Amino acid sequence: MKAPLPAWLWLVPFAVIFTAFQLAPMAWVAISAFNVNGNWGLGHFQEIAQSAFFRQAIWKSLTISLVSSAIGLVIATLTCHALVRSGGRLRRAMIAFTNMTSNFAGVPLAFAFIILLGANGVLTLALQRLGIIEDVRLYSTGGLIVIYTWFQIPLGILLLFPAFAGLKAEWRDAASLLGAGRIAYWQRIGLPVLWPALAGTFTVLFANAMGAYATVYALVNTSYNLMTIRIANLVAGDLFLEPNLASALALILVMLLVLVTLVQQWLLRRSAQHGSR
Amino acid sequence: MAHAETLPAHKSPTAAPLSATFNPYAWIVGSVFAVLALPLVATLGYALATRWGATLVPDGLTLAWFVELWTTPRFVAAFARSLAVAVGALALSLVLVMPVALLAHTRYPWLDRWMNTLILMPFAVPPVVSSVGLLKLYAGGPLPLVGTPWILIPTYFTIVLPFMYRAIANSLRAVDVQSLMDAAQLLGAGPLKAFFLVILPNLRGGVQIAIFLSFSFLVGEFVFANMLVGTRFETLQVYLNNMRGASGHFTSALVITLFAFTLILTWLGNRQAEHTITEATR
Amino acid sequence: MMAATTPATQRAAPSTVPSTIPSSVQTTTPSAPGRQESGNAVSLRGLAKRFGETSVFADIDADIEHGEFITLLGPSGCGKSTLLRAIAGLTSLDAGSIHIGGDDITRLPPQRRGVGMVFQHYALFPNLKVADNVAFGLRMQKVPGDERARRVDEVLRLVEMQDQAHKFPHQLSGGQCQRVALARSLVVEPKVLLMDEPLSALDARIRRHLRDQIREIQKTLGLTTLFVTHDQEEAMLMSDRVFLMHQGRILQKDTAEVLYTRPRDENAAGFMGHYCLLDAVEAAPLLGFRSQAGRVALRPEALYLSVQGRPLGGERPARVGPGVSGRVRRHRLLGNIVRYDIDCDGTSLAVDTLNRSARSLLPAGCEVTIHVDLDEVQELDA
């Protein structure tokens, strides 16, 4: 009889595939970002910093992501607050519906918005006939913020609702018996307790928006200047392919996400230390 | 009026009907619901309309667009490709993740901590960024996978890994796998036999949920499919994107079909979840 | 705010109060004689509450004296917690009025009632440390920082939690959490303290310890307290008086002794002690006469056993009923008491005897004679 195989051999297939298709591509991006015509250097980053075009892409990505995350977070917060105070049936129905819509993203979402708010969209025509609005520009920054916000809302609700459900009615009762009105309760108990969930949700929404590609691509192809569109165009576009430059831009994108996460962690730690003030 | 809501006794009886007509919370939930439903309703209306021009409501209702969609061979082929890739990726995930999760919950507890860190990576790195590396590594060289479905299957494995690992790990924790393995082996079953006869049946519920949810997630995947393979192996989402020039009614029918499909999958997953919970509490 | 106002005429607490009691709490002791003469601490008149079609409680009338410890005792769902919340102002009333210290507070919001409350699950604010949880009410009253710190420290000493002041609630055990919650409601010097099953979430040993501690603090502060529980033993051991609640009504308001030995009706008897309820016909052989009341309640310790004419246990009471024969079905050891279940012509009676030694236990099937102490028989209206 042959000796039994050591148990850790079972880990090898997983390790091989995960390395080849997750770690290796990441490593390649990190390394090739510094590869300037075969030499090590920061040339690609300099090029991005000096190019008004790339700076605009970064700026627009940041703007759309920050604005849509902020609006999405505010609407999700209000909705969760309302849901906690609504009846069980309405709450269950809304959570189920939110679950459904959170799956509705990317290309189908872009098409749905073209039908709703495109140049000949259903809502566009209706609003024009009612004389409320003259022209809806779905393909502008404002239009993209509307679409981004639309897909941030359900995600925000799903991430925030457990935290709101965890706010105990007894805390409110106890606070009111100790003399706190509604404002004092929210200022000293409600918001501080929710703060980690709010900060965490904002970070996830921001990362979600920064990395979004399918929706914009389906909507405007490559004609709107965002980081993800530029990265994709540099490796799979029609004209000049510059994979190393794409890596540099991709690395900047990842670093921005890491930065936001670190800021969030730092704020959380700070508020945990000073939470008693 | 900070205390209005906590004002207690002796509310005048006439106040009750007033609060019934205006409930700010129901109003907020209702308007968010309306905003979220609007694109879906418009698309559904468009998919069912004979013509919807400059009017508030469509001219007439028809199922013709759905019939046209389902009789288009290119669509059916794309659907089949999407299903095939998703099934392949999920099968690969099960085979790769199951032993890791099992070992992490029996022999190597440190592995669970490692895995919980590793599965965060797909969240930190957007698909566009991963594609940059994948395109370079597998466009040529010893493994020329780009342009074939074979690059999608392992790549999809990496993006469903977080769901799969968490689901399997949670199920393993719930059934206390170590005691079950010990008991089965004391009763004379070898480790492999114990796994297939005792552990696997107990994991079925939790793993099924993860499979349904991952499946709907993969059928909706566009970025990798478009950047790594494109029209050479046209999946559903890529097909939809390529149909942008077609009639709005036709693409609407396609969008609704896709949505209904993911809806059924998530519904099945959630039903399974409820089923598993009731079983567990019995 | 109103909760903190202290009558200038109030006298210092009696000298029997230990010197460890914080001065700020002492000076506001509501049981000071000056206040006692001004009437009851709490008066409830005709309180009623409905949820839709179902009545939660109705016709609640009660007076509580200054410094009294009152327990609202009743099974779950009897309306006792809702009544407590209505007194706190957390739940609206449909009818009736509440007076605290002579003032009508029926329409006041909870913030202005001068009422403190301790909840079953502590309700500590998770984002605040122990000291800041306790300081919360003082902060709302805009008490200056140094006075606030002094009073927080005093009250934390009172509940023996001064060493945990800088911990967060999640770092404390359940018993510690409840002591902090108690301190938090004491520090604002409420006129009345409400406690909603504060011991129910704790394990048995901690429950006993905290039970004694709460009663001791309440006595030394002379704090008027309304304590809700479903635990009969808790009610008997802690209270000056027990209000027994059943299906939204107060059945009986009496001291523990009276409630235990003289339950007013069947429901009261059913909830207190381990009364056997017999109808008049069933009870007649035991009593030796036919009771005029509809029902007769017998406590296990009011029944005496004899085996073959030899009395078991100690001294017999002066007036006993005629003996009735029965058969031991089984026995249960309750520490120093043995409780026998006796089959007695179709009815089952529980009889307590002192547990003297294992040899004297009666085996199942043993023939016995049962006598009843006629002075302890409760005749109840049907």
TrEMBL record, chain A:
Cellular compartments per GO CC: plasma membrane
GO BP of this protein: transmembrane transport
Keyword set includes Acyltransferase: no
Transmembrane parts of this sequence: 7-31, 62-84, 104-127, 147-167, 193-220, 245-268
Signal sequence range: none
InterPro entries, A to Z: MetI-like (IPR000515), MetI-like_sf (IPR035906)
Record membrane topology: Multi-pass membrane protein
Compartments (UniProt record): Cell membrane
Keyword Oxidoreductase: no
Domain ABC transmembrane type-1: 58-264
Keywords: Cell membrane, Membrane, Transmembrane, Transmembrane helix, Transport
Domain of life where this protein originates: Bacteria
Similarity section: Belongs to the binding-protein-dependent transport system permease family. CysTW subfamily.
Listed name of the protein: ABC transporter permease
UniProtKB/TrEMBL annotation, chain B:
PANTHER family for this protein: INNER MEMBRANE ABC TRANSPORTER PERMEASE PROTEIN YDCV (PTHR43357:SF4)
Database matches in SUPFAM superfamilies: MetI-like
GO biological process: transmembrane transport
An example Gene Ontology CC term for this record: plasma membrane
Similarity remark: Belongs to the binding-protein-dependent transport system permease family.
Protein name per its UniProtKB record: ABC transporter permease
Domain of life per record: Bacteria
Organism, scientific name: Halomonas sp. RT37
Membrane spanning residue stretches: 25-48, 83-105, 117-138, 150-168, 180-200, 206-229, 250-269
TrEMBL record, chain C:
Domain ABC transporter positions: 42-272
Protein name: ABC transporter ATP-binding protein
GO biological process: quaternary ammonium group transport
Pfam families: ABC_tran, TOBE_2
PROSITE patterns on file: ABC_TRANSPORTER_1, ABC_TRANSPORTER_2
Signal peptide stretch: none
Keywords, ordered alphabetically: ATP-binding, Nucleotide-binding, Transport
Recorded GO MF terms: ATP binding; ATP hydrolysis activity; transmembrane transporter activity
InterPro entries the record matches: AAA+_ATPase, ABC_SmlMolc_Importer, ABC_transporter-like_ATP-bd, ABC_transporter-like_CS, Mo/tungstate-bd_C_term_dom, P-loop_NTPase, Transp-assoc_OB_typ2
UniProt xrefs under Gene3D superfamilies: P-loop containing nucleotide triphosphate hydrolases
Biased composition (Low complexity): 1-31
Domain of life of the source: Bacteria
A Gene Ontology term for the protein's cellular component: ATP-binding cassette (ABC) transporter complex
Region: Disordered, residue numbers: 1-40
